[in-house]
Amino acid sequence: MPDSQNSRVAVYLDFDNIVISWYDRVHGRNSYGRDRQRIIETPDDPEIAERLNAATIDVGAIIDYAASFGTLVLTRAYADWSSPVNAVYRTQLVARAVDLVQLFPAAAYAKNGADIRLAVDAVEDMFRLPDLTHVVIVAGDSDYVPLAQRCRRLGRYVVGVGVAGSTAKSLAAACDEFEAYDSLPGVPRVARAAAVTKDAGSRAPSRGSRSKASAEPSAAETAADSAPEASATATAKTRGGRGRKAPAKDAATTADADAEGSATAAVENAADSPAATAVEASLIEALGPATPPKRTNRRASSATISASPEIAEPTPAAVEEPPEDPQEVATRLLERALRLGHDKDDDAEWLHSSAVKTHMRRMDPSFSEKALGYRSFSDFVKARESIAELEETGHERLVRLRE
Q: How far apart are CA 230 and CA 217, in angstroms?
């Protein structure tokens, strides 16, 4: 693992770019553009929710990779955080001390708002914080090429992170080092994510198929069968003019061909039938004549209804997720630190345990082997022999990932 004790890192995430690029990577090119309207209007739709879940971004993998270069002195993410697609990430971003920069929905005057804002902030930070040594740009747009070139010109080591297949080659060439998001430790492979979506799609009913409920006769169809004469009269009025009746036989044929129209007409004409008139007369005799409705203020009545506790819909109780097991969290942290260490130094089969621990503390400052019940870091590693192998030679302790 390279020595990064004195390195100071700034991370800038074009969050909309990485979310859209990964969605297209999982579900196919231009998938987000095709699903954009449904994602905005009905994000809770089961099909859309399943597709979004399959294309979830692992924020921790990105930040942990950036932390492998040195101490994170600032981390900013740029997006419209009022959008439901981005809002689901706010909790874990805040938990990782990421500064959320709000970008309001794009309009004609706000094109490339994230690109410009991110570039301006990055250049300002380089002059304001001269001790910055590394700049990590998480994006894939070629608009960031001038920013990467300027950072290198000012003596910073530029690292790019983007989704494979959606990142401009010019951006990768402008960076000192570029890493595909797909290859970061902990990120699921595209094939597995796509398989989840495919299985969900095979389970979902096709749009053209009729459900069991729709196959059963509706109330309107029943009304059309029970009142052939009324439906025949209404159909004749609609298609042939007013005041002219069609034969019952022709009306029945029309009702079979156009059930919805004839059923509606049957309901409308049923009110004028002698039976309906008799029922209405009996109701008036029993209950008295109906009083005309009073004219009320619509705004006042709607406000009263919405404020009424009896009518207001009950708010569902929030379901709290059980906290994760600290031992499992620490195990995943150790595995990710070892993978990043081996990826950065391919020639190093063994890593110094002190460097691995420092990297783990950099990724998660709350990590403490003593809080987990171990006397030393070596005991912590020995308890996870299924993923890590420890070698002690004198005062030197080396650790490697067990394959």
A: 19
> What would the pLDDT profile of 366-376 be if each residue is shown by its tens digit?
788 888 889 88
Amino acid at 37: Q
56: left (phi over 0), alpha (psi -120 to 50) or beta: beta
Is pTM beyond 0.70 here? Answer: no
> pLDDT by residue (tens digit) across 219-267?
444 444 444 444 444 444 444 444 444 444 444 444 444 544 544 444 4
Q: Which amino acid is at 297?
A: N
Q: Are 72 and 99 in contact (CB under 8 A)?
A: no
The phi and psi torsions of 318 (rounded to 5 degrees) equal: -70, 135
Q: Return the closest-CA partner of residue 28 out of 55, 50, 48.
A: 55
Contact call for residues 353 and 397 (beta carbons, < 8 A): yes
Between strands 396-401 and 351-352, the pairing is: antiparallel
* AA letter at 131: D
- Residue 366 CB contacts under 8 Å (≥ 6 apart), including other chains: none
Residue 266 near residue 231, CB atoms below 8 Å: yes
Of the candidates 32, 16, 13, the residue with the CA atom closest to the CA atom of residue 24: 32
Measured between alpha carbons, how far apart are the two ends of the chain, in Å?
18
Pair of tokens at residue 358: 């420092």
The string of DSSP letters for 32-56 reads HHHHHHHHHH-TTSHHHHHHHHHT-
Q: Which two tokens stand for residue 93?
A: 């971003």
Helix 248-257 and helix 259-270: axis angle, to 10°?
120
Assess contact for 65 and 161: CB atoms under 8 A.
yes
User: What is the tens place of the pLDDT at every residue in 66-124?
Assistant: 999 999 999 999 998 988 889 999 988 998 999 999 988 755 444 567 889 999 999 99
